[in-house]
Specification:
alpha/beta, binds pyridoxal-5'-phosphate, TIM Barrel, 9 helices, 236 residues
Length: 236
């Protein structure tokens, strides 16, 4: 737990100094602790260090952990691929934001489930900017049109875009993709389409968040730089 505290202090120092160089405020960027594979005690330690928003990428795992967590949290984010048959389970956990709406089909199913419950939910549209088959997300070319369609769904509020950079040892590789998504974000934001209220550009993970923030990200999703390496257990 001492290690978590140390890692967060280091991360906060680096983030503040980068933002200062960019002429931006620390409050400009939301840091989400990605807690997948980590036990509740480790997540509580993160809350105690002042990071109170956290993200999980599997509904099954979230169902086990989210209800066990203390009131130290200010928000549960869902960041993984969502199967439509898990929508109701996920909604029972009251996510603050779903980052990973990766198809119109999923958006329709989610909108219907929310309509049945008479609630609206903030979502981000995941864009597969790097066009890797291993990743979900709408294609860059289809993104704008898909976002407009989702904007017309009464129970979904499109709050921004999300992407995953390339999992390459050199994070510079992802800079052009981050730049591309920031341009699209600014373009759509300027259109002022009804049903769209773009605030969040979720990009940047442990290995590439500095590049992502420099390119305009205002929401970063950090796992291993906080918790150390992940070990995937057998039940995954
Ligand atoms: C696991 C995960 C992260 C965090 O990854 P790290 O490299 O450990 O920081 C961020 N975003 C998504 C969608 C993830 O699945």
């Amino acid at each position: 737990m001492q290690e978590i505290k140390h890692n967060i202090e280091k991360l906060e120092l680096e983030l503040s100094s980068l933002l200062q160089n960019l002429g931006r405020e620390r409050s400009d960027v939301t840091l989400i602790a990605v807690t997948k594979t980590h036990p509740c005690e480790a997540i509580e330690a993160v809350f105690q260090c002042g990071i109170t928003e956290y993200g999980e990428n599997k509904v099954q795992e979230a169902m086990r952990k989210v209800p066990m967590l203390s009131s130290g949290s200010t928000g549960f984010h869902f960041i993984g691929h969502l199967q439509s048959n898990k929508i109701n389970q996920l909604l029972s956990l009251k996510p603050k934001l779903i980052h990973s709406i990766d198809s119109l089909y999923l958006a329709e199913k989610l909108n219907r489930a929310l309509g049945n419950r008479n609630i609206t939910l903030d979502i981000l549209v995941q864009v597969n900017v790097t066009e890797e088959d291993s990743k979900s997300g709408v294609t860059f070319d289809n993104a704008e049109e898909t976002i407009w369609k989702i904007a017309s769904f009464a129970n979904l509020r499109v709050r921004g875009l999300m992407t995953i950079g390339k999992l390459h040892p050199n994070p510079e590789i992802s800079r052009p993709y981050f730049k591309q998504l920031k341009e699209l974000f600014d373009k759509i934001k300027a259109q002022q389409v009804e049903g769209l209220d773009l605030s969040w550009l979720s990009m940047g993970m442990s290995h590439d968040w500095k590049i992502a923030v420099a390119e305009g990200s205002n929401m970063i999703r950090i796992g291993s730089a906080i918790f150390g390496e992940r070990y995937y257990g057998e039940d995954r």
